[in-house]
């Protein structure tokens, strides 16, 4: 689905050089390769991660992988699925350990499609991305490394970045020119060091962790669950894996220890003996150890993610933290996704170059929250003996007293670890009262959508084929903004819909200003981008599917997206009495409707009421005008 | 998961020769290869089906494919999904065509996991099976054909069947010996002809059909749905396909026509012109035709499926009918599945050879029903002008008057086409009041399960990892009988569970009589068949997951299947008030419990109450004793 003509650059010129083929580098590369960019992607390892490393895919990341069409290839490896976390502690007045409670991984108050954590070896996940990359004509060049780079927009405005690359055995090297350079090289980033960007240590406490993947024989009943085990002999974390494997994390040393030494280590046998003591009275024997590693880790955050908005960092190069909450790979994915679509918007000509300035604050803020959370996570349960059972109550009961601080903290922790808690702050993309788009139609009081957060999930029925679908998944990750027109009842909103279509079609609107030059030649099989590479339009009608007649009920502009017209007729247990459940979940009146702009990465940009006249399109023009390269909708604005 | 030691036969000796690598042959081959049999599989085509042929996978077949672990490979091809069928007729007093109603493919009164028909080119489906076969060491030998065979159990009791095979170009040939021969060669079966088995024509009416697969440009609104279109210019059936394709079926001639000629044909252009006239006032243009074929077809049924229970027929070799209801591939799958596990039960030593005698009556009865249905299908909607809207009402309302004959016919048609209507009649496998197993615990009055029909679907929570699972999918297609112990509340049923375990462990029980010789050496990672290759035991406890303690609540025999212990704690909207919804759906009291024996192909064999004492195991011994090679449970029966 390359949306750009093949780049006909000189052989040493690229849109981007990506260093590192871990989760961050691969997500960026996969997106940009799909959207038609020319990529030089290198990694200093001879092959993808063979064992160990990250393995946790959080619920929101699974949504993203599905949106990319990669979920089924991941699930084909039969990963472990963690639905619950169990807490084990010394029993009151007894010996050994006892389960003190369990905690849903992703409790039902979070409306997740996949309410579990998926555990799979990082190498298998990398290979799924690599296969997709190769389908789009991009190969990861291995084992190659970066030896130097310069960035000078004045000297070379089109390809300002020059990068020196070398085979790791030193036998060959090349110099390439690019528009961008991305460092997804992990915690010891060469690019970050060359840029002299410091790492701030949020919490001065550092730890040495031992981690072991293997197959065990045990009578410990929760070996297939994620467990936090505290005992008088120390603490351990259990995480189930694919292929009957289990991962054990064990804290070997802490900078709070009297004899703290960041180079303290432990042998495999010592860790196994330690695990035996901690799990007592249960037995544990190793049948096979796949991977064992000891590593010191502190909480660090990169002071900058970029200096010049040409050379960017993401993933572990920007943030390090404990492995306990399984956030590393997920945060790396979202760093890269955030950058990918912004590069596309700028290079495709939709957005001003300054849009790239939103990458660092949006993602650095998430990293700060992650590090705060990482600190709290350990304390949350160690402080209160009844914490686990309270959490258990909180996760199953929606009426739990909200004023209990612990329950609040627990809920926000669940939201955060599931990936649904990411909340981008107001800026030109995420509407707020200080955004240039200001009118009575913006952000209707009833809406339950929050700008800077994910679109709420809802089932709808696709009109053309009666398929029941997840509305938030209907636009694939195509780099386009998603316009969800919640059309309400067509009999009531007919004029407003016509006015919306007229306004969108008008010269100088956000929509017409970025129309495809080849729009007239586009095949009628093009479902997502018939008019513009930067917008995909979905219309949700508050009616039963059989009552919807697309050409009769919708203006031609909306009807052109016939594969994206839906009936809001699927019962939802969260709004059991709603006639139009998807409208109700979004908090949009079915007699009025609304337009929801969703950023290409799935976060809500703005919500606008659907009104007769020009106000709706005016507000949309103002929204997009805040970052578009062209002045939008001047004509209407003056009406 | 080969369950037999590798067969160390002489190179020209096989367990089975399978002729034809269409749906029937591939299903049989795939099952038997997984279970460790040595197979000679030939097909006279140089490669799998390149275009055309069958393409409809019904809801129940998708369950089966999932149970085999093949569903995701099928779905990766992005097949079309048909949720609704639309009916178009001449409008009253008008010209052209108008939609008169729609009919859910698999209405909600059928409790289907996948309430849609999956449409995908047969060749892609064949390749999924072939890939699985190859993983299990079996290759389809192409292009080879069968030239002759003999079957003589007296002359050669171990390998009674001798088969002559030849490369289609005649350059090489071989003669092999086998225990069985299967003809899955399609309607013109060489094997059937050699056996001089006649074909009975159920309905003397024959038809000539034209079928065209291609990509069209049209404004016909239901082109992505299955449609039956009647117009003054003739009738057509529309079926959506993968890759924006559509299939059109058009009836070219009928033996009821005055000028009937079974060799009547039509060119591609004539069919396209005809489609244009029928669809008027909508337009239709062909962008590409992938496949076009004209073929005469009558309703035929093979008089026998086997003569000697060594040479068997299945699939189109046994039954031909119109393509309209999309049943061909599905019926072929189920023919082969039915035969596969019975061969396994006999060759593995569990069942007497006479078990094979149940293949023909079970599957021939389904074929008779299919042919009856095929007749009715066309008539159902042509007879009544309001049929479609009545069907529409029936499919959405569960309270529709049951005494309306049309609605009854409609519901039974839906059940049948979805694959959930297959009902095997009483025999030694499907308990009835005339079965040898007779006691007060057999078939408790409350149960909603019906012997000879599929287990009812239910969600449960797997205890060891808190995963929410589909209980009916938990045992993979491993050739074993599935014992579902609905344990009720453990506090109430503790003694009955202990007695069940004691009885199963007792020498001479159905369970102990067929224990694995290597049971002591089995890995603790063996989840499904630790004790016996012929039984997998699942236990469903009427409790919340967190309240279940497997070693405390279950006897060791049941606890050994720790990956198959479930908590019955998932709400089900069909039994919204039930404390133990899976128990409630099965109609089993949670204070009493029950044992459900499910055949290896998913059909319920017998339901027995869970009682203290020996009655429960006695009944199970009587059930299995009806077809087992050994006398079972004599000791208890005399108590």
TrEMBL record, chains A, B:
The keyword Oxidoreductase applies. Residues 14-373 form the FAD-binding domain. Residues 422-631 form the Phenol hydroxylase-like C-terminal dimerisation domain. InterPro entries: FAD-bd (IPR002938), FAD/NAD-bd_sf (IPR036188), Phe_hydrox_C_dim_dom (IPR012941), PHOX_C_sf (IPR038220), RIFMO-like (IPR050641), Thioredoxin-like_sf (IPR036249). Keywords: FAD, Flavoprotein, Oxidoreductase. The keyword Secreted does not apply. It comes from the Eukaryota. Belongs to the PheA/TfdB FAD monooxygenase family. This is FAD binding domain-containing protein.
């Amino acid at each position: 689905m390359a949306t750009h003509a093949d780049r006909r650059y000189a052989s040493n010129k690229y849109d981007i050089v990506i260093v590192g083929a871990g989760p961050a580098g691969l997500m960026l590369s996969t997106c940009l390769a799909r959207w038609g960019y020319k990529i030089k992607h290198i990694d200093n390892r001879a092959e993808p991660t063979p064992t160990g490393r990250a393995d946790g895919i959080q619920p929101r990341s699974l949504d993203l992988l599905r949106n990319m069409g990669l979920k089924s290839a991941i699930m084909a490896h039969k990963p472990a699925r963690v639905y619950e976390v169990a807490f084990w502690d010394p029993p009151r007045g007894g010996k050994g350990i006892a389960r003190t409670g369990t905690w849903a991984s992703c409790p039902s108050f979070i409306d997740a499609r996949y309410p579990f954590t998926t555990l799979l070896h990082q190498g298998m996940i990398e290979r799924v991305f690599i296969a997709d990359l190769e389908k789009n004509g991009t190969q990861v060049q291995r084992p190659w490394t970066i030896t130097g780079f310069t960035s000078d927009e004045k000297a070379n405005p089109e390809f300002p970045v020059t990068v020196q690359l070398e085979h790791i055995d030193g036998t060959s090297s090349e110099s390439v020119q690019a528009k961008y350079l991305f460092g997804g090289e992990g915690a010891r980033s060469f690019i970050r060091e060359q840029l002299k960007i410091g790492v701030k240590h949020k919490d001065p406490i550092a730890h040495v962790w031992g981690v072991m993947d293997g197959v065990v024989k045990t009578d410990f009943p929760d070996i297939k669950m994620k467990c936090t085990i505290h005992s008088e002999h120390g603490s351990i974390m259990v995480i189930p894996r694919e292929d009957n494997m289990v991962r054990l994390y064990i804290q070997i040393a802490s900078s709070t220890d009297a004899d703290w030494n960041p180079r303290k280590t432990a042998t495999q046998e010592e860790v196994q003996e330690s695990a035996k003591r901690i799990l007592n009275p249960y037995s544990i024997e190793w049948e096979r150890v796949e991977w064992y590693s000891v590593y010191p880790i502190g909480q660090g955050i990169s002071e900058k993610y970029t200096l010049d908005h040409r050379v960017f960092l993401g993933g572990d190069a920007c943030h390090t933290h404990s492995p306990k909450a399984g956030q590393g790979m997920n945060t790396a994915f979202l760093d890269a996704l955030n950058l990918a679509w912004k590069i596309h918007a700028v290079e495709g000509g939709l957005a001003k170059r300054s849009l790239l300035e939103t990458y660092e604050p949006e993602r650095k803020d998430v990293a700060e929250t992650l590090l705060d959370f990482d600190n709290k996570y350990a304390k949350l349960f160690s402080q209160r003996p009844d914490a686990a059972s309270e959490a258990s109550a909180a996760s199953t009961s929606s009426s739990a007293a909200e004023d209990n601080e612990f329950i609040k903290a627990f809920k926000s922790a669940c939201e955060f670890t599931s990936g649904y808690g990411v909340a981008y702050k107001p800026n030109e993309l995420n509407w707020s009262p200080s955004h240039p788009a200001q009118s009575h139609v913006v952000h209707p009081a009833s809406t339950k959508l929050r700008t800077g957060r994910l679109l709420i999930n809802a089932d709808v029925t696709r009109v053309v084929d009666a398929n029941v679908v997840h509305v938030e998944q209907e636009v694939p990750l195509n780099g386009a903004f998603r316009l969800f027109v919640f059309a309400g009842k067509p009999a009531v909103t007919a004029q407003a819909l016509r006015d919306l279509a007229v306004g969108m079609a008008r010269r100088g609107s956000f929509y017409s200003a970025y129309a495809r030059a080849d729009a007239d030649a586009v095949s009628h099989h093009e479902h997502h981008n018939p008019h513009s590479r930067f917008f995909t339009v979905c219309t949700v009608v508050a009616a039963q599917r059989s009552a919807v007649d697309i050409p009769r009920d919708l203006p031609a502009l909306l009807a052109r997206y016939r594969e994206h017209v839906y009936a809001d007729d699927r019962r939802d247990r969260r709004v059991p009495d709603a006639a139009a459940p998807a409208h109700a979940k979004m908090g949009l009146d079915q007699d009025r409707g609304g337009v929801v702009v969703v950023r290409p990465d799935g976060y809500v940009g703005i919500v606008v009421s659907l009104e007769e006249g020009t106000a709706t399109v005016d507000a949309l023009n103002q929204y997009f005008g805040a970052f578009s390269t062209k002045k939008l909708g001047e004509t209407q604005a003056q009406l």
